[in-house]
Amino acid sequence: MSSHEHAADPDRGRIGMWLFICTEILLFGGLFLLYSVYRYKHPADFHAASLDLSRFAGTLNTIVLISSSLTAALAVHELREGRIARAKLLIGATLLCALAFLTVKGFEWGAKFEHGLYPNAPHLLSLPPGQILYFGLYFTMTGLHAVHVIVGMGVFGYGLREMSRGKVTLKNPILIENATLFWHLIDIIWIFLFPLFYLIS
Amino acid sequence: MGDTTHPAAAPYFAPHDGKGGILAWLTSTNHKRIGILYLALIGFFFSTAVVLGVLMRIQLQSPGMRLMDARTYNILFTMHGILQIFLVVIPGIPTIFGNFALPMLVGANDMAFPRLNLFSWYLFLSGAILAGVAVFTNGGAPDTGWTFYVPFSLKTSVNVPLATFAVFVLGMSSILTGINIVTTVHQLRAPGMTFFKMPLSVWGLYATAWVQILATPIVGITMLLIVVERLFGIGVFDPTKGGDPLLYQHLFWIYSHPAVYIMILPAMGIISDLFPVFSRKNIFGYKMIAFSSLAIASVGSLVWGHHMYVSGQSDTANIVFSLLTFLVAVPSAIKVFNWIATMYKGSIKLEPPFLFALTFVFLFSIGGLSGLFLGALAANVQLHDTYFVVAHFHYIIFGGFGFGIFAALHYWYPKMTGRMYSKRAAVIGWLVTFVGFNAFYFPMFIMGWQGMPRRYYAYLPKFAELQLLSSLGSYVMVAGLVVIIGNLLYNAKRGEKASANPWGGATLEWTLPSPPPLENWEEPPTVTKGPYDYSGLGEEK
Amino acid sequence: MSDTTSERKPGYKTYFAVYAALVCLTAITVTTASLNIGRLAIFAVLAIAGTKSVLVLLYFMHLRYEKRLLVKILIPIVVATLAVFIGLTYTDILYR
User: What is the C-alpha separation between B330 and B336, in angstroms, rounded?
Assistant: First the structure.
């Protein structure tokens, strides 16, 4: 009887997904708490360390992620109108943006590693504590965020397959709808990460 | 109205569609089966933790006892804590009775997300396996205490990363259970069941689920940070890199204090169901009890600093947290007064579930009052990290959650098994456990006040008599536990068959057969009465 | 039966308008960061980040069109919870 109840209760999956999104916000929230305290304690060090990040890369990634949110939202719109093919194209565009994001991130991290700015690197350890903490938090927070990007891509990939198999339709859009809610959350987290790490003046 | 809904339907635990055996159970998304799956695992973890506790008590029996060295003792109390807290008490009632009883209590056929439910059980099992593997690999079982305080947890050579990652996985399981419970309560109530017609046990589970959702992620990230810190040395808790070890304590207790409300709120909710049934009278102050559950959940999330009064935290923080801690005692007290008032002029039936429920109130009150001592800043300076704390939380958790879950087991047993246990054995088990429990833990209040530190494997001769009494009490208590659990296990397939409603309850689960079929109702029931309205309810025996 | 939550569904125009706003706000926040306004900067960039997030929540995540009260109050609840956690921690950090 529960699958019958499922179809009759369109709110259920959405409510569950929003509750899950709350837990993700709180998961990152703990990291933001740490960032807040350490920045309060070492304002000059945080500023100095942030000069090592490329504002251009960060801004580019912000635009890329915002664009991926747009394509994801439009994909849901098309799905609700029954235009599966267009929805799939838009999800594909979202995935491309995600890939671009990760690529830029990869180059950024690579550059840091080359400059000896990775956790426990001798060069990093020679810097003032505030800078060590800045980079520790940078890698942890952008790393956890990147993990979520990868998971989101995986779910979208699965969603594409289910759309092709006719399992996700205008009548049963919940998988893609929930996946895009997750994706927008990833966007929101980056919207906060970007100024906190790249725009310290 | 007992067995007429499904005269020929098989019980939920019987094979269905020709599929029986372990595989059918391990792939079932049915809420009743999943509840039993959790019961099986949790029963095992509880028993293991009790054995570890007994070993500790043997070591503490006399000042010169050297059954083990100090490090082994540290491992024992760490594993005892991890097992009891993360694998028994936090999941305990939400996973066993949240699953088994909640859908029936609200008139539904299952939880909101049955497949997610089964997945949560597998996450729970995985977390347990990871913890088990941690005991045998890479330096072995942690010796840090279940609290994993830095800097020791970052430096000790044992397998802290795997143990903390296991806690992370268990946290994920808890979060998903919480999401399932909140969605079920909002979406799946039977027609006519408004929020204020829900049984108070549902209110207890509901308030708890919000804490599971909002607090658990913080311990999730904290455990991940321990892993990352140990693997990569990022420095967030390492003073040599500018990190602040106290921030670990803040993050840890931001979850772990609300976690104790995850432990107690569902039990309190079940007790609120039992008092009306066994007083044959409506609960006193339904709305106050319902709202007090929400109040405990919210105010309880503001008090975590009371674990840190002597850690080096600022005086300002100490004062703020102490004030908030005194506030959170109020809604608990409201519940106690309302339960007692329910009994007034009621028709009391001292059946085993009610015996456990009354003991819950008594022991929880003692534990709760001792919390007031600990919440006071000046007293805390003397009492922190002494046996007084150990006594406090065992009275609250074991006296509270422990006797609460025994009450629940004895109450819903006929519904779970279709049979009745020996009431005589239940009372004997209760008595022996109760006497042993108090001989075990009450002396700890005194020893703590006299300065006996916790987590020590040996002690000064002046504590010898009370430590001996405590150890003997623990052995008696364990004997009582054996009787209680043995009684329940023995009669699960051999006990006298039970009727649909042996206690005369007015909540919906008692309208189903004992045991219920796989699908509870063909058509959802319509609710017109409140959950404690006994008018027109005859008594079945 | 597609989406029973919204009375009015957002269309392409809305989505692109929000997108344009988000891009503009990004440009504004980058520019703000290069201005020399000292301590004010953190509040400004956080306020802009908050605004962008609200736009994503309301329009991309459809909270603007959401009927269920339970869903609508979740973000305020989470923000309040985080504020409390961080705020009470600061009673220690600020006064040690």
Answer: 10
Q: Kindly report the nearest CA distance between residue C89 and chain A, in angstroms.
A: 9
| Ranges of each domain in chain A | 2-198
Give me the long-range contacts of B446-453 (CB less than 8 A, separation at least 24).
B447/B386, B447/B387, B448/B383, B448/B386, B448/B387, B448/B388, B448/B389, B448/B390, B448/B391, B449/B382, B449/B383, B449/B386, B449/B388, B451/B386, B452/B386, B452/B387, B453/B385, B453/B386, B453/B387
What is the Cα–Cα distance from A41 to A129, expressed in whole angstroms? 10
Q: In sequence order, which residues have a C-beta less than 8 Å from that of residue B435 and are 6 or more positions away?
A: B473, B476, B477, B480
By residue count, chain B amounts to: 541
The whole-number pLDDT of residue C40 equals 85
3-state secondary structure of B386: strand
Count of the separate structural domains present in chain B: 1
Give the CATH number for residue B97: 1.20.210.10
Among candidate residues C56, C45, C37, C26, the one with its CA nearest the CA of residue A56: C26
CA distances from B327 to A195, B151, B497 (A): 39, 32, 47
Q: Which residues of chain B have pLDDT under 50?
A: 1-6, 540-541
Nearest-CB residue to A139 (from B183, B213, B234): B234
pLDDT value for A151: 98
The ipTM estimated for the assembled molecules is 0.95
Q: Is residue B24 part of a domain?
A: no
With CB atoms and an 8 Å threshold, state whether B213 touches A129.
Answer: no
Domain ranges of chain C: 9-65, 67-96
**Domain boundaries, position B159:** 29-511
Strand pairing partners for B517?
B11
Is the residue at B139 inside a domain? yes
Following DSSP, what letter does each residue of B393-450 receive, concatenated? HHHHIIIIIIHHHHHHHHHHHHHHHSEE--HHHHHHHHHHHHHHHHHHHHHHHHHHHT
In the three-class reduction of DSSP (H, G, I as helix; E, B as strand; rest coil), residue B490 is classed as helix
Residue B505: inside a domain, yes or no? yes
For B314, the closest of C77, C81, C92 (CB atoms) is: C92
How remote is the C-alpha of B79 from its chain's centroid?
Answer: 17
Which pLDDT score is estimated for A3? 45
| pLDDT on residue A128 | 96
Q: Is the pTM of this model over 0.90?
A: yes
Return the CATH number of the domain spanning residue range A2-198.
1.20.120.80
The Cα–Cα gap between B179 and B281 comes to: 33
A156, HSE (Cβ side, Cα atoms, 13 Å): 31
Which pLDDT tens digits describe chain A residue by residue (201 residues)? 444 455 568 899 999 999 999 999 999 999 999 999 999 999 999 999 999 999 999 999 999 999 999 999 999 999 999 999 999 999 999 999 999 999 999 999 999 999 999 999 999 999 999 999 999 999 999 999 999 999 999 999 999 999 999 999 999 999 999 999 999 999 999 999 999 999 987
Chain C residues within 8 A of A21 when measuring between CB atoms: 74
Interface test mutation site (partner A, options C1, C2, C13, max chain A beta carbons within 10 A): C2
Residue B9: its pLDDT value, please? Answer: 81
C6 pLDDT exceeds 70? no
Q: Are A136 and A34 in contact (CB under 8 A)?
A: no
| Chain C residues touching A192 at Cβ < 8 A | 46, 49, 53
Cβ neighbours around A44 below 10 Å, total:
10
Provide the angle, in degrees to the nearest 10, between the axes of the packed helices C69-93 and B200-232. 50
Residue C8 pLDDT class (50, 70, 90 cuts): low
* Residue B17 confidence (pLDDT): 81
For A187, the closest of C1, C41, C56 (CB atoms) is C56
- List subunits contacting chain B, requiring 3 or more Cβ pairs under 8 Å: A, C
Residue (of A83, A90, A85) closest to A164 by Cα position? A85
Rounded to the nearest 5 degrees, what angle is found at the Cα of B472, between the Cα atoms of B470 and B473? 60
Q: Are A140 and A38 in contact, with CB atoms under 8 Å apart?
A: no
